[in-house]
Amino acid sequence: MDGQLFAQQVVSGLANGAVYASLALALVLIYRTTHVVNFAQGEMAMFTTFVAWSLNNRMSYWPAFVLTLAFAFVFGAAIERVVIRPVEQASHLTVIMVTIALFVTVNGFVLWVWTPDLRDFPTPFTGEPVVVAGVFFARHEIGIIALTVATVVVLWAFFRFTKLGLAMRAAAIRPEAARLLGVRVGWMLALGWGFAAVLGAIAGMMTAPLRLLDPNMMQPVLIYAFAAAVLGGIASPAGAVIGGFTIGVGINLLATYVDFVTPELELPVAFAVLIGILLFRPAGIFGRVAARRV
User: Fold this and answer.
1) pLDDT > 50? residue 128
2) What's the Rg (C-alpha) of the chain?
3) Distance set, CA 209 to CA 71, 140, 234, 288 (Å)
4) 228: Cβ contacts below 8 Å, ≥ 6 apart
5) Which stretches of 92-184 are DSSP H helices?
6) Per DSSP, what are the bridge partners of residue 130?
7) Dist CA 238 CA 219 (whole Å)
8) Positive or negative CA dihedral for 288, 236, 204, 198?
9) Which residue in 32, 244, 274 sits closest to 148, CA to CA?
């Protein structure tokens, strides 16, 4: 095994995994608050990335990046208040169908406004590759990993050390008890959707320079993110991050060292991982099986 090739594939896999981890973490945040998987998470991320592309045509990258995150937060919170809130007392199947309808609506809106043309999307991480022990690492890959790790640390600190973060955790885990303590649970759920949309926007803006910007670019990423969330435990934020990096590195190494795993088979491999986890360990690596007395 070529050590340099192995190291490059691991770093490339970590970069892909960082994108999966961001979107998987968004899925977990919404699942923890509503106990429903948001099938529109990828399309929401794609939509905010198109917004970022439009802003990038009018200003430099980082101001557009910050404005996009602000827009994504408001967009996610508004979706919860306007679309999800009216059906929050309905069955889980009803809410899932609403997210699927949202998937189709957002995709159609982007096609209508921006057309299906492929577009280049800029990356802020430019320059010559970083060379370590003869191994070349693209700056964009290193930047994706660093940005994802920084985002996860900021979110962890927010939920761990701030009153608002603690209130959001209480609203997600014990909503009735949180209401008795004066927590506005409804708004906490909306904030959760807002933060999930921000994570999706980051994943979209990091994906677009690698895959080109197109209305369908986040659909395969969403599959990998689902696999990562299930692998780590659908209710475990730490598990989602670890699952994302594991899926990214694992798929990359399989495609490199297993002859029959071609790029066309990478997505089916992720599906196989997803099915295998659901069959043999539905709770995931960090999930816990809940016992209910009936």
Assistant:
1) yes
2) 19
3) 20, 9, 28, 37
4) 17, 20, 21, 23, 24, 240, 243, 244, 246, 247
5) 92-114, 139-161, 163-173, 175-180
6) 137
7) 23
8) positive
9) 244
Interval 45-70 mean pLDDT: 95
Distance CA 36, CA 185 (A): 17
| 100-114 per-position pLDDT tens digit | 999 999 999 999 999
pLDDT of 293 strictly over 70: no
The arithmetic mean of pLDDT across residues 5-30, rounded, is 89
Helices (H) and strands (E) in the chain, counts: 11, 2
Q: What percent of the chain has pLDDT over 70?
A: 96
Which positions ≥6 away from 197 have C-beta within 8 Å? 26, 44, 45, 48, 72, 73, 75, 76, 77, 79
CA distance 114 to 176: 43
Domain boundaries, the chain: 3-280
**SS3 state of residue 130:** strand
213: β partners:
119
Angle between helix 163-173 and 3-34 (nearest 10): 70
Give the other-Cβ count within 10 Å of 3's Cβ: 10
Residue type, 241: V
3-280: CATH class: mainly alpha
